[in-house]
Write a structure and sequence with these properties.
homotetramer; alpha/beta; Dihydrodipicolinate Reductase, domain 2; 14 helices
């Protein structure tokens, strides 16, 4: 297999920039594969596309350049400054493939979707790519309400034809991607392909997608500690979580409306794993000083034999963009392979990567790993 | 199935006392099953013996009474003081079934083993028990050296016949237990049934055993966090561990010789899980002030994509006896069932409970759980 | 000096109950003075009243008895259950001295204040007390707004005469206390004696008071760590604080209006100590499971030489009532002594005990200690 | 005042290199004074020498260059890589003023001391300096034994004349420094000027010195938290400390003999502050992976009112060289000023900077600060 393109929604954001730098660095043998799940033998067994031929493009509403953004990120310790310098030329080339994102108030959503679809097709054709994976790494949007126009594909098409704008921004991109036959990765908790009308379109078009809301840090830890308590019959009484982060994501999440999506998907898994609701606050706070680094603190209060109360606490100090970027590459490869072998709609086995796994209610990481490995084994045989 | 006896080595220690109190409390409907793995449906499926008919006895070298020890433990917060009061009569009855342990320098090991074996048989006969499970919860001993007399059963028998004393204390009990046809649980890291001569005896006698060194706290956490890093291809660079504890176990482990057993089995699993050795100290410190409570702190330094360094730390504040006691009951039930269905020698599927699983090199908790559940499913059908 | 009474506002709350139990236990030689600042020689030098003759009474709006509340607190680990049992008789006697608190909607504030004043006078007379110290340990109220009727004593008296109800509940008690010539301790962040009209009354009546909002845990730590960073010229960039607590105080603070008082006084000191505003969230969360225990976690991000970023975090696991109770006894003794030696109005040197020290802008604990010790030395000579 | 020289023992070590880079950066207006106590107004009041004219030289036994070492440190995050690049020329110039250190086995200690003394005099003369402050930042040595030849200056001189080698390495440098009339800073716990014979020499020569073992992180925190517990009459029951570090200091301290000096001085202060011995381990572990960064974790278990047990834990994540370097500059300025105003022998008021303050048993940081500020005020008037 060859010729995969990545099309980022939010192409100059922290995650897209780190992913692009990483892709270029790996290809230039300036960096290894640490953090890339798709390089583990159990996952590589799926027959995944090489990173060598991957072309990057995308949409972006913000000003600036990939090179400038890479410098800022490296100054913040996300990757070594030398990488930004050495790869400056490649980053400029990638930057030229970035198109202006869809801005509110410029024409109808129908027009915007047509434009995005055309740009995706043009990108695929121009570079002779077998397939283009669209990856949403833009700012988190609020949850989509219960809008009639999003309930069915027919209702959506009618609303768009009527000049209405019912789609959340992320869902507009997903709609356009599916129309262009592009697989999709919903890396954020934004509605994206999850609104019913758009989800239906993916099935109709026969394109697979993965989502949503990548688990990169504190939630990842929860999905191994939660099962531990459950397997040992220890009763979790409260689980309090605090996330402090300073990057662009933090700023977006300082708006409670946007944070609602994130908090909902974060709280999700624990109750499912433990089999009962668990008390305790879940905070996401924007602390600009922390930059691209996130510090999360969790306190778990649990009860053991004869009612004895005990506790566990952990502090996670991670660099979000650095944790996210290799997963983007993993998901691009997996979704591309899923497309190649004919999968369509949400792939539940990719839930391993997500806080809110589409088409799955499995949250325990080891169960998700088993499912992923099994999928990869089948994909390796061309049968999923 | 009915009529199971538990015979503790170290019958008035913290773990045995808490287990005895818990068993009596559960039977009197004064306490529930929190912390008991054998009550989870996947494990109960094995067809485990009820706790209702279980009789407790044991050996003990220390003075005192179960009732007194229960009072001390409840004052230290291990269980509610009311339990010690209400169960005082039952504890006195159990205390009367405790026999003096084997003291060094009183006769030959042959004589001591004969005495223990006779006492086990007498206990089983007197109470009309189908089987008696011997559980070693006595103080940790140093690792057994490479002694010729322990290399084969024949060599051991010859040495004992010659009046020699080659057996570590824990192994003497295991030897006597197997001679009496009793299944065995090696709850501590002491050599016990793991010396080759004694291990061979178990097979010859057709009795199953489980071991060794129950994982109750910090190591338990390691065996879920370690796989998390591995599944995400994050490179653990150092893992530093500190265990502060004040109970009797802490005092024993303040002696570096005894701690050697413990430290060896604790360090064991992580390297196996990650696939490479990991730097970092592993301390076990005796802090009398902490009583039966243990505080462990771990710092994990890891590397992600493009070499970015991140870290995670956790603090575990647990009550060791309270965490251990329900596992003792679980293991008694499982080993009794294994005996009933004809298993013999170390049962690798019981590795779920141990830091140093006998006959197994699986350390990841979820893998161990899968193996345990599978064994229980087979045992439920009478076929292991 | 002899004959001091304590009159609690919130006499069956956690703090008042723990204080009462502690006072009785110390007097019966069942407990020592751990946690009591007034027993340190530098403070005792003030010539403080003995605890032996202290009589306890108070107001309470809630149902129940001191004895019942003591049982609940001891079950939650605040003090040994045996104390509640042994002191049951004394607690019943104390309970009989508790009067119904002022309930909203029962008559005018003038009538309520007159009733409270009369009860304070009656308590003092009946027990032949030299002085009665009123201590507010009731639930935290929202900040008082900028109300004209609270601006001056004359305006307040006119409003009360006119049948209006301008006073926050805590201020009504302070007003009545000052009218009765009773010194006062504002142990919570409620407005109490701090509204201008009531503060003026204290001066007019010549009674001293101390406040407000006792620092018992996380804030206490801040007031020693903050000066450390300042003295070392390290630049604190952000300080994030999370307080998880489950007691009655937690429940009250789950209401954002009430929490506003608390959060304002907590945030107060740090900026003053560091000399510049500091970024970072300050959360107070109600986690019922935690009972009377509070867990606080703070993350301090700071910058050192050449711009290097470093961090410190701490977790405080304390029992709020247990930390507060000895300070109540300390403050009663100190305020009583202040009254005896003729002090009037807020005593700035008692700021050592408070998050929001009245008549003082000193927050660094060691500076506050110096001031307290100096006051005690002067009081020991009868001259403050 | 003008013309101060710094002469480092260990001139290419992490601390000396960071100090040199910092000094040059400040002088070139490339960096500010964060972390420098001597820039706080209360300390600057002493009338301290400017950093502008300071010349750096020193002894070093290791190979390499300052420039190379600066590159390594900046790669490890100790300071921005750009500084090492910009200052490369200045670092080369400084490097040329570094002389080979005293190596064991090359001539007698008398000869070595004469050589060092001559080099110090030459450095002072060549650069026309008013005074040269010798700063020991070399590897920690074991404690000096109870050696007769070190007991008095006369005994020492006799032994040196007899060709003996009784002096620890650090003390040989201090001896030579005092002979040359140079003030001295014992930045490490090595014996240095503290052996009686050398200490006597300082007094005889009329030169001041400061020491020993700078408190930069975990111990610093202890000296503010310890007094907090004491001032609140809370009883510290155990205080457990773990220090994980990967730099050169860590490697030296991996040798238990060398660590003995460090551990002794670290444990010192707490007992003095609390007024009683405190249980709990104190570990210093070498974890190479951590580089120049140190992570320390402390668990404090304490008892409050009515015997209630509580705890506090903190984690300190600091860069040792970055914390140490500004203190070196502070101490150089203060010791130079002390020399100028005629102080002689150990200056107890400089204990603020040290774990094991010479000629002082004050450990509480705020008490030390008071003493320092008072000294500076007097020095500002020319009278200490």
């Amino acid at each position: 297999m060859s010729g995969v393109g990545i099309w980022f929604i939010g192409a100059r954001g922290s995650v897209a920039t780190t992913t692009t730098v990483g892709l270029l660095a790996i290809r230039s043998r300036l960096a290894g594969h640490t953090g890339m799940v798709s390089e583990l033998p159990e996952v590589a067994a799926a027959g995944l596309p090489s990173l060598d031929g991957v072309v990057v493009g995308g949409h972006e509403v913000a000003e600036g350049t990939l090179g400038k953004r890479a410098e800022e990120l490296s100054a913040g310790g996300v990757f070594p400054p030398a990488l930004a310098t050495v790869l400056a030329g490649d980053l400029t080339a990638a930057d030229e493939r970035i198109r202006p994102g869809v801005a509110a108030g410029h024409g109808t959503q129908r027009e915007a979707a047509d434009r995005v679809e055309a740009e995706l097709r043009a990108f695929r054709d121009e570079h002779g790519l077998d397939r283009v994976v669209v990856v949403d790494v833009s700012s988190t949007e609020p949850p989509a309400g219960d809008v009639p126009a999003l309930a069915t594909l027919a209702a959506l098409e009618a609303a768009l034809d009527a000049g209405e704008s019912p789609l959340p921004g992320s869902s507009l991109y997903a709609y356009a991607a599916f129309r262009a036959g592009c697989p999709y990765v919903a890396f954020t908790p934004s509605p994206g392909p999850r609104v019913p009308a758009v989800s239906a379109l993916a099935l109709e078009q026969g394109v697979p997608w993965a989502g949503s809301d990548a688990k990169t840090g504190e939630t990842l830890v929860k999905t191994v500690l939660g099962p531990m308590f459950a397997m040992r019959a220890l009763k979790v009484r409260s689980w309090s979580s605090v996330n402090l982060l300073g990057g662009g994501d933090g700023q977006t999440l300082a708006d409670p409306d946007n944070a609602a999506s994130k908090i909902a998907t974060k709280a999700n898994g624990l109750e499912s794993i433990l089999g009962h609701p668990v008390d305790g606050p879940l905070h996401i706070d924007y602390v600009p000083d922390l930059g691209d680094w996130k510090t999360a603190w969790d306190l778990v209060s649990f009860e053991g034999f004869l009612g004895t109360r005990m506790s566990m606490q952990f502090t996670w100090s991670g660099c979000d963009s650095s944790l996210a970027a290799p997963l983007v590459l993993d998901l691009v490869r997996l979704v591309a392979r899923a497309h190649e072998v004919g999968a369509s709609g949400p792939v539940p086995e990719f839930g391993f990567f997500f806080k809110d796994p589409a088409a799955s209610d499995v949250h325990a990481l080891s169960r998700q790993w088993d499912a992923l490995v099994s999928w990869c084994e089948r994909a390796g045989r061309g049968a999923v």
